Task: structure prediction
Amino acid sequence: MPSILMFAPAWKGGKTLELRALRLSHLYKEWRKMIIKRDNFECQECGSRVKLEIHHKKGFTNYPKLRFEPSNVVTLCADCHSLTDNYKGRERRNHE
Ligand SMILES: [Zn+2]
Result:
């Protein structure tokens, strides 16, 4: 007999995920700062010190396990970042 209780675990899980995502986004900001500091607050391509972003050499989509791997990321300025081949979803998915 279907009941509202059937959905309870999923809902609870959703809540937990939300909290985890919040905590992760905070951690991610800290982690980003650490990477930029590691790279001397400079774009590793052109040496710019403004509009710094984190570039994932192996894309976010295809390599979720490498998202927080320091050796997989490099500090780039927004301009150099936009020239990378997997910038903002330009990355092709392996399974397509
Ligand atoms: Zn640059």
Observations:
- Residues 13-89 form one domain.
